[in-house]
C-alpha cells in the first residue's frame, strides 16, 4: 500500500480541481471521482468519464457541517441531528438545494445530495480546496465501485488527472442515503449506517422511498455489476449448479461464504468473510477479482435475510439484476 498522500500531493490535487480537472480520492466507503462542484465544465467531465447520463445527480462532498448552508436551503432540524451524530461518516443527506447551486451537479433536480466524509485524505483534500467536491463513486456507469486506487486506475486510466491513494476503503460499500427534502424522512439507499440507527437518531420511523421522494436514479435495478453475469443462489445449491454449468462446458466463478470448494476444474472460488462488515469491506474487490477469471457465469451465495445484511443484499441484487447466465 502506498503511504498517505503528502501535503504536496494534496496541493497538486487541489490545483487540478481549481483548473477544472478530475481527482479520484479515497473515502471510508468507496473512492470518489472528484470535481469542483461549482464548475459546470468540470461536472460535465465527471459525467463523460463515467459514461453516466446527465440526469443522474452527484453527491457533493464538504469538509464539515458548517458548509451545509452554502449548498442547501430550508435545512430541517432532523438534518442537523443526523449530521451531528454521523458526520464525518458514511451518510449522505438529500436536502433542498440552495438557489446558487448549479443544476448540472443535481441532475436538474431541486434537491442536492451532501456528505462529509471521514477519511483523512478526503478531509485533507476538502479542507485545502475549501469548496464542495462533486464525487460519484469512481467507476464507469453501472460497473463495480472502486475500493482501492489501483481499481480506480483500472477503471479510468488517463481519463483521471490525479488519483490520491489512501489505501483500501474501510467500509467498502457506498454511504447510506436519507432523503430529508420531504416532511417524512426516507431511506433511499441502505448502507453501513442502518435504518434502525437513523430512526434512533431521528426519533421517528423512516419511510420507504415514495412517489414524492426525489428520484435516485443511481439506485437502478442493474448496478454494481461485474462483466460476468451474476446469479444469486442459496448455499446448498451452489455445488450442484457449479457442476451442471461445468458439464455444459461453462467456466464458473463462485463467491461463497465458506471455504468448502467443490473439486471442479476451471473453477474460480473466493470464500468471503462470514460477517457483514468484513463481507462488505471485501465485496467489490472480490467481484473484480472473480471478473478477471474470464468465467461464463458468477454464482454468488445469497447473503442471510437479517437486517445486518440489508446493504450487502441491496448491492448483490443489483449486481445480479438483468444478467442472463452464460
Ligand atoms: O459512499 C458514497 O456515497 C460514494 C462516495 C464517493 O462518497 N459516492 C457515491 O456516489 O456512491 P454515486 O454518485 O455513485 O451515488 C450517489 C447516489 C446515486 O444513487 C444518486 O442517484 C443519488 O445518490 N443522488 C444524488 N443526488 C441526489 C438527489 N438530489 N436526489 C436523490 N438522489 C440523489
Ligand atoms: Mg455509484
Textual characterization of the structure:
- The chain is of the alpha/beta class.
- The protein folds into two domains: 7-202, DHBP synthase, CATH 3.90.870.10; 230-320, Rossmann fold (3-Layer(aba) Sandwich).
- The chain contains ten helices and 14 strands.
- The chain has helices at 7-18, 40-50, 68-71, 77-86, 120-129, 149-156, 195-202, 238-247, 276-291, 310-320, and strands spanning 23-25, 32-36, 59-61, 72-73, 91-97, 111-115, 133-134, 162-163, 176-179, 186-189, 230-233, 252-256, 268-271, 297-301.
- Strands 1, 2, 3, 4, 5, 6, 7, 8, 9 and 10 form a ten-stranded mixed sheet that branches. A four-stranded parallel sheet has the order 11-14-12-13, with helices on both faces.
- Strand 1 and strand 2 form a beta hairpin.
- It is globular and about 60 Å long.
- Bound molecules: threonylcarbamoyladenylate and magnesium ion.
- Threonylcarbamoyladenylate (TXA) is lined by residues 27, 29-30, 32, 56-59, 92, 94, 106, 109, 111-113, 115, 117, 135-137, 174-175, 177, 188, 214-219.
Largest sheet: 10 strands, mixed
Q: Helix and strand succession?
A: HEEHEHEHEEHEHEEEHEHEEHEH
Shape: globular
For CATH, the homologous superfamily of the largest domain is named as DHBP synthase
Helix run count: 10
First and last CA, distance: 35 Å
CATH topology of the largest domain: DHBP synthase
Radius of gyration: 20 Å
Q: Ligands in the structure?
A: threonylcarbamoyladenylate, magnesium ion
Instruction: Estimate the helix proportion, in percent.
Output: 25-40%
Main structural class: alpha/beta
CATH architecture of the largest domain: Alpha-Beta Complex
Q: Kindly give the count of domains.
A: 2
Amino acid at each position: 500500500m502506498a503511504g498517505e498522500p503528502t501535503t504536496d500531493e494534496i496541493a497538486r490535487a487541489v490545483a487540478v480541481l481549481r483548473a477544472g480537472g478530475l481527482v479520484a480520492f479515497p473515502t471510508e466507503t468507496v473512492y470518489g471521482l472528484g470535481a469542483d462542484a461549482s464548475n459546470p465544465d468540470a461536472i460535465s467531465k465527471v459525467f463523460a468519464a463515467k459514461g453516466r447520463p446527465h440526469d443522474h445527480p452527484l453527491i457533493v462532498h464538504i469538509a464539515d457541517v458548517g458548509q451545509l448552508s452554502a449548498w442547501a436551503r430550508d435545512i430541517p432540524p432532523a438534518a442537523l441531528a443526523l449530521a451531528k451524530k454521523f458526520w464525518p461518516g458514511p451518510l449522505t443527506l438529500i436536502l433542498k438545494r440552495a438557489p446558487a447551486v448549479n443544476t448540472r451537479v443535481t441532475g436538474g433536480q431541486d434537491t442536492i445530495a451532501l456528505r462529509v466524509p471521514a477519511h483523512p485524505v478526503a478531509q485533507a483534500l476538502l479542507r485545502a480546496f475549501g469548496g464542495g467536491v462533486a464525487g460519484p463513486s469512481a467507476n464507469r456507469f453501472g460497473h463495480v465501485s472502486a475500493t482501492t486506487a489501483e481499481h480506480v486506475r483500472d477503471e479510468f486510466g488517463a481519463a483521471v488527472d490525479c488519483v490520491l491513494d489512501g489505501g483500501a476503503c474501510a467500509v467498502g460499500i457506498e454511504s447510506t442515503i436519507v432523503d430529508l427534502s420531504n416532511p417524512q424522512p426516507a431511506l433511499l439507499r441502505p448502507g453501513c449506517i442502518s435504518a434502525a440507527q437513523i430512526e434512533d437518531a431521528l426519533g421517528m420511523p423512516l419511510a420507504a422511498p415514495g412517489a414524492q421522494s426525489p428520484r435516485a436514479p443511481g439506485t437502478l435495478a442493474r448496478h454494481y455489476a461485474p462483466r460476468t453475469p451474476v446469479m444469486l443462489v442459496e448455499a446448498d445449491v451452489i455445488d450442484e449448479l457449479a457442476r451442471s454449468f461445468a458439464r455444459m462446458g461453462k467456466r464458473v466463478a463462485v463467491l461463497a461464504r465458506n471455504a468448502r470448494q467443490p473439486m471442479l476444474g476451471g473453477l474460480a472460488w473466493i470464500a468471503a468473510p462470514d460477517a457483514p462488515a468484513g463481507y462488505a469491506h471485501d465485496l467489490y474487490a472480490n467481484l473484480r477479482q472473480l471478473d478477471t477469471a474470464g468465467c461464463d457465469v458468477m454464482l454468488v451465495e445469497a447473503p442471510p435475510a437479517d437486517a445486518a445484511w440489508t446493504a450487502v443484499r441491496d448491492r448483490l441484487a443489483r449486481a445480479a439484476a438483468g444478467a442472463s447466465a452464460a
